[in-house]
Design a protein that fits this description.
With 455 residues, the protein is an all-alpha fold. Helices cover 60% and strands 1% of the residues. The protein has a two-stranded antiparallel ribbon with strand order 1-2. α4 crosses α5. It is globular and about 65 Å long. Bound molecules: fe (ii) ion (2 copies). One fe (ii) ion (FE2) binds next to loops.
């Protein structure tokens, strides 16, 4: 696995991709945001499809379950900031713990709130957060779930999935006994795809965290409260299917999950479709913090505009645009507590933050359709004098596209509002970049940005 060195950006080939294939690869980024181990979404999808198979469902219903599970966490970043602020802790940790907590039990709920209130801080701070969480109670939980599910359903619709996907994603946290969120639906009023997705994701979480017996036990413990009793009875038959449980953890699972997609519903995405997909995931990234609400979209716009002014060909401009949209996808793996921090970061926090371009690279290189610019996207904090991060590359290592991305990213960061300051005026931002040119930034690229701004 090569992690540094000169690599040219490659313009996209004209291959067509299955929508589900691209999204499957991107679910690893959503797993990060939810604090789940890599592959969580795909394993949950495989579990859900076993329910579908044993229930003898039609292709239409199987498609609803398949896409609901693939898209179930698309709204995950929408409540990250509220979770981090409300609990005073790392959002991914709080979310991870929630997934193994029976939050319909008052005792478990109180213990959960105490465990997660201002983790690692002093007693007074912990008490303060705990009191606020307790005062918010179910209303707070309902709102956090609503924001997340609504956002996920909206993204599913925007990507052209059938309405059943949106309703499945929206109903993911409803419980059979009516104690769930966001609408407190009960029994068969909850879409079947949501009922299956809920039990499938819970089985997956307990499987990877505590093993198959614990996964079966949690299904049984929540039979008739969280979960549809008929589904729990069905999966009782899986108890001794050791080969199946083992296969769920196998490395070839992504290929097997792809083969489970109902064939009549397979959708192929062309270049336009890939652009829309990159835009949707840019929004997921930007939604993680209120201070980056337009960052990725703006960087893509600035970078592709600079590339066009320089005269790069259409395919390269498109590549630069996609790299701009997804350059910070690695931030899905960074705690929102750090992203939203109003004070200067500590040395440890800076080190964590500096990992995000590495995460970007490791996420995008899994995605066949986006692999060509995975490396480029990871270079946006590199500087010509070698003082950038995370790879510490220098001038000759950095191609024109990466120099464009670096200028677009810093220009957007300077002009946008941040937790610790308002956005700077255009001229002041350009002055700051000029001071570091040509030592850290490319003079031709800065000139193209200035031409574009004044043109
Ligand atoms: Fe970044
Ligand atoms: Fe950025």
């Amino acid at each position: 696995m090569q992690e540094s060195g000169v690599r040219r950006t490659i313009v996209p080939d004209q291959r067509e991709y299955r929508l589900s294939e691209v999204i499957s690869a991107l679910t690893y980024a959503l797993d990060l945001t939810e604090g789940q181990p890599p592959g969580h979404t795909l394993r949950a999808t495989a579990i859900g499809m076993r329910f579908a198979e044993e229930l003898g469902l039609s292709d239409v219903d199987r498609a609803a379950i398949y896409y609901t599970l693939l898209m179930k966490d698309a709204g995950c970043s929408a409540n990250s900031s509220a979770v981090a602020a409300g609990f005073g802790s790392d959002d991914a940790e709080v979310k991870r713990d929630l997934k193994t907590t029976d939050w319909s039990s008052t005792t478990e709920c109180a213990a959960y709130a105490w465990r997660n209130a201002a983790r690692g801080r002093g007693l007074l701070q912990r008490l303060g957060h705990f009191t606020r969480i307790a005062a918010g109670g179910h209303g707070l939980a309902r709102e956090l779930v609503r924001v997340r599910c609504h956002r996920g359903a909206t993204i599913a619709t925007r990507l052209g999935f059938p309405e059943t996907t949106a309703t499945g994603v929206y109903g993911l946290d409803e419980h059979w006994d009516g104690g769930g969120h966001p609408d407190g639906l009960k029994g068969e009023a909850i879409p079947l795809s949501a009922r299956i997705a809920n039990v499938a994701q819970t089985i997956e979480i307990f499987l990877t965290g505590r093993g198959a017996p614990a996964a079966m036990q949690v299904a049984r413990d929540r039979r008739g409260t969280w979960f549809d009793p008929a589904l729990v009875d069905l999966c009782e038959g899986w108890r001794n299917d050791h080969a199946w449980w083992t296969d769920l953890l196998d490395e070839d699972l992504p290929a097997r999950v792809q083969a489970m997609e109902p064939s009549d519903h397979i959708r192929i995405v062309d270049d336009e479709g890939l652009d829309r997909l990159a835009e949707a995931f840019a929004d997921i990234v930007d939604a993680k913090s209120p201070y980056t609400s337009q960052h990725s979209t703006n960087v893509a716009h600035y970078a592709s505009s600079i590339a066009a002014v320089i005269g790069l060909d259409e395919a390269t401009v498109r590549t630069v645009n996609r790299a701009g949209l997804l350059h910070d996808i690695g931030k899905l793996g960074i705690s929102t507590r750090i992203l939203d921090k109003a004070a200067p970061l500590t040395a440890d926090e800076r080190e964590v933050m500096a990992q995000h371009p590495r995460f970007t690279w490791s996420i995008l290189r899994r995605v066949g359709a986006f692999r060509d610019f995975a490396w480029l996207a990871s270079l946006h904090h590199e500087r010509l004098d070698g003082t950038g991060y995370p790879w510490g590359l220098g001038g000759t290592d950095l191609d024109l596209e990466s120099r464009i991305l670096a200028v677009a990213d810093v220009y957007e960061a300077l002009t946008a509002r941040r937790p610790y300051r308002d956005g700077l005026p255009v001229e002041q931002s350009l002055m700051i970049i000029r001071k570091d040119t040509p030592f850290r930034y490319d003079g031709d690229v800065l000139g193209a940005l200035e031409d574009w701004l004044t043109g």
